[in-house]
Amino acid sequence: MNWNEYTGLFETILNANKPEAPYKDANYLEYVKLNNSRSNRWNKRGELSENTINVLKDIKQQQNWILITEPWCGDSAHIAPFIAKMAEQSEKISFEIQLRDNAPHLIDNYLTNGGKAIPKLILRDDNNNDIAVWGPRPSKCQELVMKQKEEDLTTEEKKAQQQAWYNQDKGVEIQNEIVDCIKHLSH
Asked: Are 158 and 35 in contact (CB under 8 A)?
């Protein structure tokens, strides 16, 4: 699916009379509501750096970007809008979104420590060979998550700290890490 179809999926889920699984669960529905708001905010206010734009515009070979995600994923609400904005910067990038929990279950080939952590961005060349994989979150945010595992925090406290990290970072680390992936491809 493309970015517009994906963002439309949030409304479809939220407006459904009888939501399908996992959205029958009120918690999942609440995640989608929050994530829709967060994603919309980054769509409107998120900005790409000049360096990011320049690196993307300088891509010489076709790249096919596949983002594996789900509307219920909190990290994706902060990350996916920046990836979509990045993909728009170059005519050499084709961009599609695949849902983690739907066939063909591409995520099974991109596990993180044995888990289906998302979002996951796969960069492929014109022959559909993987040339880079990024995700599920920026390394500095991952450091926070790992530190939280050692602390006696509630789930809500952990989520609040992660939310604060994303709000303070404003997509900078996401851009830096994906730009680094792209730069390594050209060497």
From this structure: no
